[in-house]
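User: We ran a pulldown and think these components assemble together. Before we commit to crystallization trials, I'd like a predicted model of the whole complex to look at. Sequences follow.
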Amino acid sequence: MDTGDTAWMLISSALVLFMTPGLALFYGGMVRAKNALGMLLKNYIAMGIVTVTWVAIGYTLAFGPDAGGGWIGNLDYWGLRHVSNVIEGDAGAIHGVAVPDTVIMVFQMMFAIITPALITGAVAERMKFTTWAVFIAIWSIVVYAPMAHWVWSPDGFIFKDIKAVDFAGGTVVHINAGAAALAMVFILGPRLGFRREIIRPHSLPLTLLGAGILWFGWFGFNAGSAFGANGLAANAFVVTQIAAGVAGTVWALMEQVRHGKATTLGFASGAVAGLVAITPASGFVGPGGAVAIGAAAGVICFLALQIKFAFNFDDALDVVAVHLVGGILGSLLVGVFADAELNPASKDGLFFGGGVDQLGRQAAAVGIALVYSFVVTYVLGRILDAVMGLRVAEQDERRGLDLALHEEQSYVLAD
Amino acid sequence: MKMIVAYINPYKLDEIRDALKDAGVSGLSVSNIQGFGRQAGHTETYRGAEYEVDFVPKVRIEVLVDETLAPTVISTIETTARTGSIGDGKIAVLPVEDVIRIRTGERGRDAL
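Assistant: Here's a predicted model for the assembly, 527 residues in total across the polymer chains.
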């Protein structure tokens, strides 16, 4: 066991967990005051429910021995059976790094938690809490776990056969959540008053605080995905900072040019878009690639905000523009800016003389992730809609989810 | 006794409070409000989506004063709040039947 590596992975796990409260605040500030607690709880509940589903079955489906064809892990590790915190020899028996398997298991758990939480931004201000709770339990097992297996298990078919790379979750986390968000938006329909009433963020300071926590936690997300305290982690750390800084600045610049004023929400959105885009690339590109990816995220995710108005779907907090578009962008740009000298796990990208080989592999993984997540989420959403109902009653939506679903208020007048 | 209610621009509050203290006002109440008058609304932009917002943030000041002090208070607020631009606000003057200081039970002018 390497104590330095293990210490870094324990801290990274905590950093990634902290991103979910950060996300809750990021989104919570963007909804109206009457729905703030509903949003916070839909995020926080993922820390409860997905912990249970991951321990029970999610982990073994994702990282258990392959059940055949690289499609899914078998049930050998259900309930964390055979997942040991003791290392015999140089490396853990399951993950093959000098860190106990239990630590890698819990690090991966934090990714499984935040991924469904990302979808809350699309279903904001109108989805039932009970149906949401059931949804994420099932989704974490039937959508998240298989995709984690395909991309991150050494036996997974995207990893082994397609040979696409995803350092920290461009496909597994961001495209996955973004495509699921799109499917849920189609089933749920728009919020009452969408495009007719003024639906404004109720507390941008909360949103900015959330964005800061996300940025901070993202160092664990990306640099932790090196699975050790090493040069690759250092590279991921540095390019994460560069991409976030460039994307936030570029987004603010786009606003300044197009609307005459930069905004706090714009800078925060840009930074998050940059973090999303660099996620799959953070172990494969250097500082130059990070600048390019950050700038691309700042421009393209900003322009992607208009998609929902063009197609008239109410992706309330822009999960599609930030996570789906950002995830696709970053996953594809690995095939452009990957430097095999930095990390031989990926071939050289287009920019480094590798031609379109890696780009093609990346595009295949993007397509598979997008289609699988969208289709399975759509079917799951339709079934849950028929059985439990996805959407709150109209009067509850007008009253606000905080009082209607939780009998609490964020802001009371006096005590 | 009079109740003087003034709707003013929020950034004028400190100046008005100081001027009213100097004029001999012994207390006032303030609240953040939103409203619209002749002043048009404004535009707010969130992630590129522009919203026309009719209500603008204003501050409401309530001052209870004796009849003799009322003209001074009114003219103080009027001159301090005025910028000459649309949106400077309004002042309303209401008659007051009685005032009670809760702690002591004093009534009328003694309670001011």
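The longest strand of chain B covers residues 56-65. That may be worth checking against your pulldown data before setting up trials.

User: Thanks, that helps.
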